[in-house]
TrEMBL record:
GO terms for molecular function: transmembrane transporter activity. This is Transporter major facilitator superfamily MFS 1. Signal peptide: none annotated. Keywords: Membrane, Transmembrane, Transmembrane helix, Transport. Residues 11-451 form the Major facilitator superfamily (MFS) profile domain.
């Protein structure tokens, strides 16, 4: 189907609105934890599974998304995903017990795990290569905004209403998007029917298992985690072997044979590490070093998130005009510079200074994340775009989780060794400045022009 055969702006608007509402559901829920704890008389550890379980199911569905795009008409797939999210949200609204709430949440995760890589693949497929930077920049604006406004929307609703109001909002948006999608979403993807590989899906569960291990390591090493790690690593190796020896693999891992794509994957991962570490370590810094309240701490990251969102469309245009190397080097320079200044100035910063440096590191992400994703996609033939996007999304999550573990471990260990809180933050920021330098070196190896 060509661009003339459907309303291109309406298609993109519907696609991004649906993805935006689902993305909000990821970041908005943590604000409601106290309300869930009161309603169901549960501890924080149990309630946190609303996020942990969501993340694990979402990670499992990401490698399946290329097969779905190649075997189900995209309009039907999109409507199925939105309907699944809506049903899950409806269960959350009704939820007479935490178990029902959890089931609803996992259905939401199922939908998000499919749509998150798929929407990027579709946008890349329907957009000419010379304009991909711009359109992916808009996508970055939408996704960044969702992460930024999620906690704000949640906080406002919970101030005035019961926690069900949050899910009612998601449900209303889902119903509207689903209704509109019958007129705007078209089957833009070429189908290549193949048999569903159930064994590969089972083996792909190794990725959420590894993700679970990485996130759980922040609480300490246990025998159970060790056993899960061994099983997950064996399954992951088997998964890779199987994909490389199948005529029609569930996930085409040969995308890593393309040098520019592999570089882009690791640049995206390093950028995501910088983003997620900033959003986790800076609130700790605000509260423990600057002694502000949790509310002020959360609001202090809003300027950085807003700046990241607003920069995305401009960095996309810059990618189309100047090519990946220049754009990514600017971003990595900001990330390295931000973390380096944090490492040097941590003992002396006031709240305003800390907010500004958080804005610098997150601004760097705008110059790296979507431009690197687009550069990696441009290096692949069109028939591998879905696989490339799924691989990039999976690697980004794994590397991001590893970054969280490293940040948490670093803060704990340096604090224990030095008994100096400011120094522990300085050394942790220095570690991530070095990781940023690795990204800077990778950026130097990118092609000058937009096409790899």
């Amino acid at each position: 189907m060509t661009e003339k055969e459907f309303n291109h702006p309406a298609f993109i608007a519907t696609l991004l609105t649906g993805t935006f509402s689902m993305s909000i559901s990821q970041s908005a829920l943590s604000t409601a934890y106290p309300a869930f704890m009161r309603s169901f008389h549960l501890g924080a550890g149990t309630v946190s599974w609303l996020t942990t379980g969501f993340m694990l199911v979402m990670s499992l569905m990401i490698p399946v998304s290329p097969w779905l795009l190649e075997n189900i008409r995209f309009d039907r797939l999109f409507q199925l995903v939105v309907a699944t999210f809506g049903i899950g949200t409806l269960l959350c609204v009704w939820a007479p017990s935490f178990s029902v709430l959890m089931v609803g949440r996992l259905l939401e995760a199922l939908a998000v795990g499919i749509i998150f890589p798929s929407f990027q693949t579709v946008l890349l497929t329907i957009t000419p290569e010379t304009e991909r930077g711009h359109i992916m920049g808009i996508a970055g604006l939408v996704m960044g905004s969702a992460l930024a406004v999620g906690p704000i929307i949640s906080g406002v609703l919970l101030t005035w209403f019961h926690w069900q109001a949050l899910f009612i909002l998601f449900l209303i948006i889902s119903v509207v998007v689903l209704s509109v999608s019958f007129a705007t979403i078209k089957p833009v993807m070429t189908l290549h029917k193949s048999q569903f590989d159930w064994l590969s899906v089972i083996l792909a569960a190794s990725f959420p298992a590894l993700l679970y291990v990485l996130t759980s390591l922040t609480k300490g090493v246990t025998l159970a985690l060790g056993i899960i790690s061994i099983i997950a690593i064996v399954a992951a190796v088997w998964f890779v072997y199987r994909q490389l020896h199948q005529d029609k693999p569930l996930l085409q891992l040969r995308v890593f044979a393309t040098k520019a794509f592999t570089q882009a994957v690791f640049l995206t991962g390093i950028s995501y590490i910088a983003l997620i570490v900033t959003t986790i370590v800076m609130p700790l810094f605000f509260q423990t070093r600057l002694h502000v309240s949790p509310l002020v701490s959360g609001l202090s990251l809003v300027p950085a998130a807003v700046g990241l969102s607003l920069l995305n469309p401009y960095t996309g245009k810059m990618l189309d005009k100047f090519g990946p190397r220049r754009v990514v080097l600017i971003g990595m320079g900001l990330i390295v510079g931000g973390f380096t200044l944090l490492a040097i100035l941590a003992p002396y910063l006031n709240l305003l200074g800390a907010i500004l440096l958080a804005m610098v590191t997150e601004a760097g992400n705008a110059f790296v994340m979507m431009p690197a994703v687009t550069t990696g996609a441009n290096a692949l033939p069109e028939n591998l775009l879905a696989d490339g996007t799924a691989v990039t999304t999976t690697m980004r999550q794994l590397l991001g989780s590893a970054g969280v573990v490293l940040a948490t471990f670093s803060l704990q260990q340096w604090q224990s060794l030095t008994q100096n809180q400011a120094l522990s933050f300085q050394l942790t920021f220095a570690i991530f400045a070095v990781i940023g330098l690795i990204g800077l070196i990778l950026g130097l190896r990118l092609p000058l022009k937009a096409k790899a």
